[in-house]
Design goal:
By secondary structure, the protein is of the alpha/beta class. It contains eleven helices and 15 strands. The protein has two domains: about 180 residues, Rossmann fold (3-Layer(aba) Sandwich); about 180 residues, RecF/RecN/SMC, N-terminal domain (Glutathione S-transferase Yfyf (Class Pi), Chain A, domain 2, Up-down Bundle). A six-stranded antiparallel sheet has the order 2-1-4-5-6-7. A six-stranded mixed sheet has the order 8-12-13-3-14-15, sandwiched between helices. Strand 10 and strand 11 form a beta hairpin. Bound molecules: adenosine-5'-triphosphate (ATP) and magnesium ion. Adenosine-5'-triphosphate binds next to helix 1.
Length: about 375
């Protein structure tokens, strides 16, 4: 799959832009604050109907304007498809695919698959658990669109349950009802996450072994409160935990166990990388994870996802830059960079270079 054309109106610092891309590599070259990341954001919107930078859609509208319009022509499933997203200051968002309005974001998720890789991702190993949960959530959304509704449902109930726990006097039967719904959504999330982590563990072990020249053994393990024994269901375990902890939860005014506390343990030869890994080891493991995600999406969807690399190259040493670019040769890529380093330019496959200046494409090199 690839994006052929993009047209932006009043999107971020772009007043109007029309551009056709290469189906191989596209480089956005330019100084700081010219609009390189904004352009990636504009592309990303067509896969997820939301930004990777903000949850407030209005921020995407060019300062002082009423609305923004973002249109793309993409090729997938053997055909060209047009998608259009219009966001207004009033807070309305309209998403159309091939001219027809779609009401659920999940419909969009099943179409284009775009993976963004930013320097933040290189920190995923050392950051707090929330970042790793974010990573798992985004990936599973792309593979199983129904996951988004489970996640939203879970968050909604969790918020209500937590608010309820803070009240002085509560009706236990009402709490029972909250718990039932929380257990159902939570158990589905845990099953999806377990399946995902098992798969990504297998793939990343292989990739990491290649990057490290066979020297290092990467292992990913799902850390969750909900660990069913043989023959037990996730529902039963989660329900038991909630019941056992109810009084403590009331005391703290918060739900202390459940998938909202999940994590992935990432280790190298038995050593916990988050706590004991060197920076280089943490980055390489993060790179392996990211590359695994690409391969997994490919295996699950049968399509090769589009990759956005935002400022990543300069964060990697020569060896890893080359590995990255060579192993991703058959995907459409969008790469932002402030300077085109010689060795990178040489290892690039076919493509186009766009020089970006103040929200315009200055020249196409
Ligand atoms: N809604 C908006 N309307 C107008 N301009 C905006 C809007 N949002 C962001 N900008 C401006 O867009 C500019 C470019 O942002 P962008 O993040 O794309 O830069 P960049 O080229 O990726 O720079 P860097 O190399 O520093 O990452 C910023 O100066 C910012 O002020
Ligand atoms: Mg940027």
């Amino acid at each position: 799959m690839y994006i052929k054309e993009l047209e932006l109106d009043n999107f971020r610092n772009y007043e109007h832009l029309e551009v056709s891309f290469s189906k191989d590599v596209n480089i956005f070259l330019g100084e700081n604050a010219q609009g390189k990341t904004n352009l990636l954001e504009g592309i990303y919107l067509h896969a997820m109907a939301r930004s990777f930078k903000t949850i407030r859609d209005r921020e995407l509208i060019r300062f002082g304007e009423e609305y923004c319009k973002n249109r793309a022509v993409a090729f997938y499933e053997d055909e060209e498809h047009t998608s259009e997203i219009i966001i207004s200051q009033a807070g309305a968002k309209a998403v159309k695919v091939d001219g027809a309005r779609i009401s659920r974001t999940s419909e969009l998720l099943e179409r284009l698959h775009i993976i963004i890789f930013s320097p933040e991702d290189l920190k995923i190993v050392k950051e707090e658990p929330g970042k790793r949960r974010g990573f798992i959530n985004r990936e599973i959304c792309q593979i199983r669109p129904g996951y988004v509704s489970d996640l939203n449902e879970y968050r909604r109930i969790l918020r209500q349950r937590n608010a309820f726990l803070k009240e002085d006097r509560i009706d236990e039967t009402v709490l029972d009802i909250w718990d039932d719904s929380l257990v159902r959504a939570g158990a589905r999330i845990v099953r999806d996450r377990r399946r995902f982590i098992e798969k990504i563990d297998m793939i990343s072990r292989d990739i990491h072994s290649r990057i490290s020249g066979g020297r290092e053994n990467l292992l990913l393990e799902y850390e969750t409160d909900i660990q069913p024994e043989e023959g037990e269901s996730e529902e039963a375990v989660f329900d038991r935990i909630l019941k056992e902890d109810r009084q403590k939860d009331r005391f703290h005014g918060v739900t202390r166990h459940g998938p909202h506390r999940d994590d992935i343990r990432i280790s190298l030869g038995g050593i916990d990388l988050r706590r004991f890994g060197s920076q280089g080891q943490q980055r390489t493991a993060a790179l392996s994870l990211k590359l695994s995600e690409i391969r997994l999406i490919e295996e699950e969807t049968g399509e090769s996802p589009i990759l956005l690399l935002d400022d990543v190259l300069s964060e990697l040493d020569n060896e890893r830059q080359k590995y990255l670019l060579n192993s991703l040769g058959d995907h459409q890529m969008f790469i932002t960079t402030t300077d085109l380093i010689g060795s990178v330019a040489r290892s690039l496959p076919e493509g186009k270079v766009f020089k970006i200046r103040s929200g315009e494409i200055d020249i196409e090199i």
